[in-house]
């Protein structure tokens, strides 16, 4: 009997395993990756907790259908329909590569309160004045609230239409009626479709809303600007598929305590992704900054020790920024190392290089190194300016006026070449600087403006010997 029971239970176990192997499958809600059994982490996009049971996955095939639009030779296709249209906002056009493309879908993401709605309302008004009908769909505010903001920032236009709508079908009905050249949706997480289940902002709803808006944009050759929310980690909320569907993904960044805002393109099918747009956000609205370098440099009548001007490259744009350093005698056995706007680990490395390679006594002082204006400097080209600012604070001697310095500093104390040396020099000369300490390059610094002095250095000790003899 025991053997019979065991054989029966064995057959039941094998039957249950067989049923489980033919049972429901599991799918990642972010990227669509499927697996036969549940896992906590997606094997494709590495997202946690996004694998859900969706039912049996059956392989299907689609039969060929009759051709309605025959294929054309690529040489015979008219590309003038996809020519750039300037938006009227120069900094946005710079990031997009010259303007918006008809039929393109642009996703603008950023933290709450950074100014996404203000920027797009300004874009909508200026585009309407120059290019025709614009429809602004808001799902987060009432039409009256948006109008008050438009009046405050002078974003009124006769051909700018506004509707407060949360239903996708009604919004698409407005699009079919007006047929605008530009559609602004604020935001894609607030619209919902009655055709699918789930609440607004859910994965299924965001996917359906985005797919419907993209289909309408391509069919009507209508440029579409979508506002997207971000998560706590700073990534775009919703399914990752959303970023793959749209043509352009832009990130709008800025600190709440600062008026400076920066726009970067993370994805651009029609232009570069290494350009940066700078904006000034105030109560009167948002304005593009063609020359934002003045925000990152302090204005003092007399030179002050512990400061050094550098030129950083944000994309292709050179920006002058000031690095400040303050050294104070430490009251503890372990000196404090504080930074603002700079990579703390890189500053600690430079302090170690200065102490070891130049014999500077920095082990008994607290060091405070920061940038001016809240700008964040991440590229290695700022190493030399940080080192010179620290040594200026250590010796109490200010650096010469109208001097800039840039270059990467290695652990051996060498100063390595950086990209765009001549571009940085030209920008410094345009803003009134006359001296530069730069890394030695095999090709030299390039053509130097008249009256501009350039000193190339191979080692950090060479730069210190030049400025602190």
UniProtKB/TrEMBL annotation:
Family annotation (InterPro entries): AAA+_ATPase (IPR003593), DNA_repair_RadA (IPR004504), P-loop_NTPase (IPR027417), RecA_ATP-bd (IPR020588), Ribosomal_Su5_D2-typ_SF (IPR020568), Ribsml_uS5_D2-typ_fold_subgr (IPR014721), Rubredoxin_2 (IPR041166)
How is this protein named in the record? DNA repair protein RadA
Region (Lon-protease-like) location: 366-469
NCBIfam families in the record: sms
Q: Which Pfam families match?
A: AAA_25, ChlI, Zn_ribbon_LapB
* Name of the coding gene: radA
> What HAMAP family does UniProt report for this protein, alphabetically?
RadA_bact (MF_01498)
Q: Which UniProt keywords apply?
A: ATP-binding, DNA damage, DNA repair, DNA-binding, Hydrolase, Metal-binding, Nucleotide-binding, Stress response, Zinc, Zinc-finger
Known function: Plays a role in repairing double-strand DNA breaks, probably involving stabilizing or processing branched DNA or blocked replication forks. DNA-dependent ATPase involved in processing of recombination intermediates, plays a role in repairing DNA breaks. Stimulates the branch migration of RecA-mediated strand transfer reactions, allowing the 3' invading strand to extend heteroduplex DNA faster. Binds ssDNA in the presence of ADP but not other nucleotides, has ATPase activity that is stimulated by ssDNA and various branched DNA structures, but inhibited by SSB. Does not have RecA's homology-searching function.
Q: Name one GO biological process term.
A: recombinational repair
Q: Where is this motif: RadA KNRFG motif?
A: 267-271
Query: Which SMART domains does the record associate with it?
Result: AAA
The UniProt similarity line reads: Belongs to the RecA family. RadA subfamily.
Q: Which GO terms describe its cellular component?
A: cytosol
Taxonomic lineage from the root: Bacteria, Bacillati, Actinomycetota, Actinomycetes, Micrococcales
Q: Name one GO molecular function term.
A: zinc ion binding
For domains, the record's comment is: The middle region has homology to RecA with ATPase motifs including the RadA KNRFG motif, while the C-terminus is homologous to Lon protease.
Domain RecA family profile: where?
Answer: 81-230
Superkingdom of the organism of origin = Bacteria
Which species is this record about? Psychromicrobium lacuslunae
User: Which parts of the sequence are annotated with region: Disordered?
Assistant: 1-24
- Residues involved in ATP binding: 110-117
């Amino acid at each position: 009997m025991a053997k019979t029971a065991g054989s029966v239970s064995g057959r039941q176990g094998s039957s249950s395993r067989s049923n489980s192997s033919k049972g429901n499958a599991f799918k990642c809600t972010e990227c669509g990756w499927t697996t036969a059994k549940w896992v906590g982490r997606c094997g494709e996009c590495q997202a946690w907790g996004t694998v859900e049971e969706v039912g049996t996955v059956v392989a299907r095939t689609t039969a060929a259908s009759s051709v309605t639009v025959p294929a054309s030779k690529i040489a015979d296709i008219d590309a003038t329909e996809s020519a750039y249209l300037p938006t009227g906002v120069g900094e946005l056009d710079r990031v997009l590569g010259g303007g918006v493309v008809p039929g393109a879908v642009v996703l603008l993401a950023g933290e709450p309160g950074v100014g996404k709605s203000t920027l797009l309302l300004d874009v909508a008004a200026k585009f309407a004045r120059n290019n025709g009908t614009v429809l602004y769909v808001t799902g987060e505010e009432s039409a009256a609230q948006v109008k008050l903001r438009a009046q405050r920032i002078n974003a009124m236009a006769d051909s700018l239409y506004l509707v407060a709508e949360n239903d996708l079908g009604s919004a698409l009905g407005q699009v079919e009626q007006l047929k605008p050249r530009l559609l602004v949706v604020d935001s894609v997480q607030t619209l919902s479709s009655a055709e699918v289940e789930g609440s607004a902002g859910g994965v299924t709803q965001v996917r359906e809303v985005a797919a419907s808006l993209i289909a309408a944009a391509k069919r009507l050759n209508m440029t579409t600007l979508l506002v997207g929310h971000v998560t706590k980690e700073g990534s775009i909320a919703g399914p990752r598929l959303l970023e793959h569907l749209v043509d352009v993904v832009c990130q709008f960044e800025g600190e709440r305590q600062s008026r400076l805002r920066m726009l970067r393109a993370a994805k651009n099918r029609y232009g570069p992704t290494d350009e940066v747009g700078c904006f000034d956000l105030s109560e009167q609205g948002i304005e593009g900054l063609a020359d934002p370098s003045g925000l990152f440099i302090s204005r003092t009548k007399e030179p002050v020790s512990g400061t050094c001007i550098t030129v950083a490259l944000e994309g292709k744009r050179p920006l002058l920024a000031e690095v400040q350093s303050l050294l104070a005698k430490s009251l503890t056995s372990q000196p404090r190392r504080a930074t603002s706007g700079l990579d703390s680990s890189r500053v600690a490395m430079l302090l170690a290089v200065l102490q070891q390679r130049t014999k500077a006594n920095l082990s008994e002082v607290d060091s405070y190194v920061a940038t001016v204006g809240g700008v964040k400097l991440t590229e290695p080209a700022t190493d030399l300016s940080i080192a010179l600012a620290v040594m200026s604070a250590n010796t109490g001697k200010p650096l010469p006026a109208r001097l800039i310095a840039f270059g990467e500093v290695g652990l051996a104390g060498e100063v390595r070449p950086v990209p765009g040396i001549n571009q940085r020099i030209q920008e410094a000369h345009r803003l009134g600087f006359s001296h530069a300490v730069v890394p030695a390059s095999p090709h030299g610094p390039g053509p130097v403006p008249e009256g501009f002095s350039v000193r190339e250095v191979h080692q950090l000790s060479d730069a210190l010997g030049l400025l602190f003899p």
